[in-house]
Amino acid sequence: MYVCEWSITSAVVDEFAERLPGGDKETDWRVSWLPGRALTKDQAIAAMELVELLYDPTHRDEAAVRSAVAAAAERLSLRPVDIAATLSERHPPR
């Protein structure tokens, strides 16, 4: 994951987060897979961590991944099952 002042991108999956230009509020971040939701930078990072955790094939310790997914989902006030459903719609199996 690459975190900059204005964007967060992933080398794992084609999702991104961006800070809105001219924004001065704490919730000026938007994430591609959570359209219409205003987020803090910490929440945007959590959302991008979730994408990488769920789509990076190098993660082998499933218990650790489940724990990290649960922690990141909590930071977003989302249920892991809802996150999985949303992302599976955006990234259907090939």
Structure, described:
By secondary structure, the chain is an alpha+beta fold. The protein is 44% helix and 13% strand. The chain has a four-stranded antiparallel beta sheet, with helices on one face. The longest helix is centred in the middle third of the chain and has 15 residues. The protein is globular and about 40 Å long. The mean pLDDT is 87.
Shape: globular
Mean pLDDT: 87
> Unreliable runs, pLDDT <50, ≥5 residues?
none
Query: H/E series, N to C?
Result: EEEEHHH
User: What fraction of residues sit in β-strands?
Assistant: 5-15%
Count every beta strand, where a strand is a DSSP E run of 2 or more residues.
4
Structural class: alpha+beta
Give the biggest beta sheet: 4 strands, antiparallel
The Cα radius of gyration reads: 13 Å
Strand order of the largest sheet: 1-2-3-4
Q: Helix content range of the residues, please?
A: 40-55%
Number of helices: 3
What is the first-to-last residue Cα distance? 23 Å
